[in-house]
Write a structure and sequence with these properties.
Elements lengths: L4 H19 L18 E5 L4 H13 L6 E8 L6 H14 L5 E5 L8 H20 L3 E3 L4 H14 L3 H4 L5 E2 L5 E2 L7 H10 L16 H17 L3 H29 L7 E2 H5 L3 H14 L9 H12 L7 E3 L3 E6 L2 E6 L1
Helix pairs in contact: 1-2, 1-7, 2-7, 5-8, 5-9, 9-11, 11-12
Keywords: ATP-binding, Cytoplasm, Ligase, Nucleotide-binding, tRNA processing
InterPro entries: Rossmann-like_a/b/a_fold, TilS/TtcA_N, tRNA_Ile_lys_synt, tRNA_Ile_lys_synt_N, tRNA_Ile_lys_synt_subst-bd
Subcellular location: Cytoplasm
Length: 342
């Protein structure tokens, strides 16, 4: 008798990602001396102790040895709750019991930039990046589910930041494709059921039910209200929207990258007339990239900033320079658009 359907689903999702990671490993050069056995790749799971990440950890522990992959785990102690260090130690014990090694806890200091949720996320990814570099990991698995993807799409829609925000989380992201999200096509209930049938203890973060947090309100109030008004299937539809939006955004980004060189003069300055001739979606991507290259932080650069810069091209009336995040200014001079540090 095979495993429970929920367990089979999570294992299959992880197995596919591990095969992709193995296929992405660089080929060994032809040896001139007797070859030494190559070190097996290391894959880490980022685990909070919640149902999603514990299900992911269990699937990684089961699948990795069969493929000759070393499997480890990292839990991040954000220090935002009393006893968080004790909880992190408990998660390490759970990961070790699953057979994951190394299994470590990393404590971080959470700042305030961008709000509590964004600051915690930034601190967490910085810690995971550092751990992956230190341990030489080929990849870090994240337990985001289809429900998380739907929430991310709705948050992007609320910000009004364009199609890239609607594309949600990528299955592969980070430097060199470090981060992998095997569960984006699985719902949260599947992960929780997999933990239940495997008798895996899980920790439910009280922040996930705290109405002070935007994502918590969306999860417990917003999405249920949408399903009540529109019927079941909202989560699946939002996740499908994310994939379609990502495909479109990737195509437009590629177009903008190709068009960027053709709208610059010999000195590398953007020519307003050539920019004006481009479709708005392509032109604004070029403007955004130019602002980021000039020093504007990508996370602080919103659609309204780019719209103001765009008006220097499409609605030129002699207006002055536009101030952007990171002390960057955009200014029209003699038919050229100059974006620089102020």
């Amino acid at each position: 008798m095979g495993p429970h359907p929920a367990v089979a689903a999570i294992r299959l999702a992880v197995r596919r990602v591990l095969h992709d990671i193995l296929n992405a490993q660089p080929a060994s050069p032809t040896p001139t001396a007797p070859p030494t056995p190559p070190e097996r790749p290391l894959v880490l799971v980022a685990c909070s102790g919640g149902a999603d990440s514990m299900a992911l950890a269990s699937a990684l522990a089961f699948e990795a040895p069969k493929l000759g992959i070393r499997a480890g785990g990292i839990t991040v102690d954000h220090g935002l709750q009393s006893g968080s260090d004790t909880r992190a130690e408990d998660v390490v014990l759970r990961l070790t019991a699953l057979g994951l090694a190394p299994a470590e806890s990393v404590a971080v200091q959470v700042g305030r930039s961008g709000g509590p949720e964004a600051a915690a996320r930034d601190a967490r990814y910085a810690a995971l990046d550092a751990a992956a570099e230190r341990l030489g990991a080929s990849a870090v698995l994240l337990g985001h589910t289809r429900d998380d993807q739907a929430e991310t799409v709705l948050l992007g829609l609320a910000r009004g930041s364009g199609i890239r925000s609607l594309s949600g989380m990528a299955a592969i992201s980070g430097a060199g494709g470090r981060y992998r999200r095997p569960f984006l096509h699985l719902d949260r209930q599947t992960a929780r059921k997999a933990c239940l049938v495997q008798h895996l203890p899980v920790w439910d973060d009280p922040h996930n039910t705290d109405p002070a947090y935007t994502r918590s309100r969306l999860r417990h109030e917003g999405l249920p209200a949408l399903e009540k008004a529109l019927g079941k299937g909202v989560v699946e539809a939002l996740a499908r929207t994310a994939q379609l939006s990502r495909d479109d955004a990737d195509a437009l980004d590629a177009w903008a990258a190709q068009a960027a060189e053709s709208v610059c003069d010999a000195a590398g300055l953007l020519e307003c007339a050539k920019l004006y001739a481009l479709p708005p979606a392509v032109r604004r991507r070029i403007l955004r990239r130019a602002a980021i290259e000039a020093g504007a932080p990508a996370g602080a650069l919103f659609a309204r900033h780019i719209e103001e810069v765009d008006r220097l091209i499409t609605g030129w009336r002699g207006q002055g320079e536009i101030n952007l995040p990171g002390k960057v200014v955009a200014q029209r001079q003699g038919g050229r658009l100059v974006i620089r540090q102020g």
